[in-house]
């Protein structure tokens, strides 16, 4: 029987692979579609990402609902097998339309991986929550770095589609590892225990959730607007090579890893709202700087500050949601829907702004969205949702 430490290590490994597979080609989609399928229109990248994110928005809540009735590990196995088959098909795609169709089915399977993070939170309890969230973001951004570097190499291959054969082999190996590691893991008991936890009062909680939904949506919209055309922007406006642009693209991920000790040491339940608002303010400034500067050194400094405080802000936001919830899996799947809605809108906003203005415009608009998010977040975090049993005690006292 594998120990809890081994189980958590495998969960983190699966998260690493999930992020790696997702980001390997994402900074290079314009170059990928041009080289492999002859699609040179930059708007197709936005369309492709839009369809991909729409698929995830629909699929994640479905996996979340299924997790109420089926063990998470079994849902994961199903997702892994769907992914394995579709990855092989993607390597044989003949045109962009066929590749997009396969991508939709792949993401249906891959969306099961969204259940891994809340499962980690459940396994560790409240005392280790900040450490787990910090470790998650370190693994997440480490995967972005490795994926970005790998993508820069894969895009130079004569046939970049060979990447998907490799991912299929990895998928199969991870399924075998998961079968061995999770055979004694059960989430049924935890699900029953969660039903006994108190729920929060209706009106104030609905207002809180609505505002936090706006915060999550806007936060992820802003921070993903700058991704699809970043390499195109830096290669065009700063005359960098694709390798140099790739390194600059992953600077925020490197800074996010350095932020891990801060997340682990300084986060507490009382500090989380203030930390999130502070980090969001710095993000606003750093995004505006990246879009308005003509200096390469200033751009690099902006990327450094952006990456460090992006990890701080995202970790604080997730901790805030987990701290206010007794059902982490349900809350995270709902939050993921708002997050993916932001990811859905982001590429189109990026495409619209660069078409109307310039390649730097997505940064400026993202900064403006972050500023608006800061104001809504301040309002959201001022709403206190009280448990029903507290309200009942107040009524009895009257």
From TrEMBL:
Its main location: membrane. Keywords: Membrane, Transmembrane, Transmembrane helix, Transport. It is found in: Cell membrane. The chain crosses the membrane at residues 45-66, 75-93, 99-121, 133-155, 161-185, 206-226, 238-260, 272-290, 296-317, 329-350, 356-377. The keyword Transport applies. InterPro entries: MFS, MFS_trans_sf, MFS_Vesicular_Transporter. It is a multi-pass membrane protein. It holds the Pfam family MFS_1. PANTHER family: GH10249P. This is MFS transporter.
């Amino acid at each position: 029987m594998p120990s809890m430490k081994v189980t958590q290590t495998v969960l983190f490994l699966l998260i690493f692979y999930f992020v790696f597979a997702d980001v390997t080609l994402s900074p290079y989609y314009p170059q990928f579609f041009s080289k492999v399928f002859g699609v040179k229109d930059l708007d197709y990248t936005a369309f492709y990402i839009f369809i991909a994110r729409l698929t995830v928005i629909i699929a994640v809540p479905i996996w979340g609902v299924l997790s109420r009735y089926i063990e998470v590990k079994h849902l994961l196995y199903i997702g892994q097998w769907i992914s394995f088959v579709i990855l092989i098909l993607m390597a044989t795609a003949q045109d962009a339309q066929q590749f997009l169709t396969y991508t939709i089915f792949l993401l249906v399977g891959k969306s099961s991986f969204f259940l891994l993070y809340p499962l980690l939170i459940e396994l560790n309890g409240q005392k280790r929550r900040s450490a787990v969230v910090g470790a998650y973001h370190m693994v997440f951004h480490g995967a972005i770095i490795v994926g970005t570097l790998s993508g820069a190499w894969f895009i130079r291959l004569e046939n970049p589609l060979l990447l998907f054969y490799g991912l299929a082999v990895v998928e199969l190996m991870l399924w075998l590892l998961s079968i061995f590691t999770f055979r004694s893991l059960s989430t049924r008991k935890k699900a029953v225990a969660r039903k006994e936890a108190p729920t929060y009062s209706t009106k104030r909680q609905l207002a809180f959730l609505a505002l936090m939904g706006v915060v999550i949506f806007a936060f992820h919209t802003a921070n993903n607007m700058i991704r699809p055309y970043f390499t195109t922007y830096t290669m065009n406006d700063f005359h960098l090579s694709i390798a140099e642009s790739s390194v600059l693209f992953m600077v925020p991920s490197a800074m996010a890893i350095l932020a891990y000790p801060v997340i682990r040491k300084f986060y507490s339940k009382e500090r989380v709202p203030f930390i999130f608002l502070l980090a969001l303010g710095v993000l606003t400034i750093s995004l505006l700087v990246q879009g308005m500067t003509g200096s390469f050194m200033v751009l690099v400094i902006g990327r450094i500050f952006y990456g460090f405080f992006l990890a701080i802000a995202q970790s604080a936001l997730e901790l805030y949601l987990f701290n206010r919830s007794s059902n982490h899996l349900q809350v995270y799947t709902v939050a993921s829907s708002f997050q993916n809605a932001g990811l859905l809108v982001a590429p189109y906003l990026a495409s619209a702004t660069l078409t109307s203005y310039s390649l730097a415009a997505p940064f400026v608009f993202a900064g403006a969205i972050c500023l608006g998010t800061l104001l809504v977040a301040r309002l959201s975090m001022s709403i206190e949702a009280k448990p029903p049993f507290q309200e009942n005690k107040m009524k009895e006292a009257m």
